[in-house]
Amino acid sequence: MAQNASMEEFEALLNESFEMDTPDEGSVVKGKVIAIEAGQAIIDVGYKMEGRVELKEFANPGEAPDIHVGDEVEVFLRQVENARGEAVISREMARREEAWDRLEKAYANEERVEGAIFGRVKGGFTVDLGGAVAFLPGSQVDVRPVRDAGPLMGLKQPFQVLKMDRRRGNIVVSRRAILEESRAEQRAEVIANLTEGQAVDGVVKNITEYGAFVDLGGVDGLLHVTDMAWRRVNHPSEILSIGETVKVQVIKINKETHRISLGMKQLQEDPWDLVGAKFPLGSVHKGRVTNITDYGAFVELEPGVEGLVHVSEMSWTKKNVHPGKIVSTSQEVDVMVLEIDGAKRRVSLGLKQTMRNPWEVFAETHPEGTEVEGEVKNITEFGLFIGLDGDIDGMVHLSDLSWDERGEDAIQNYRKGDVVKAVVSEVDVEKERISLSIKAVGGDKFAEAVGGVRRGSVITVNVTAIEDGGIEVEYEGMKSFIRRSDLSRDRAEQRPERFSVGDKVDVRVTNVDNKTRRLGLSIKAREIAEEKEAVEQYGSSDSGASLGDILGAALKGDD
Question: 523-538 and 547-558 helices cross at what angle (nearest 10)?
Answer without folding.
Answer: 80
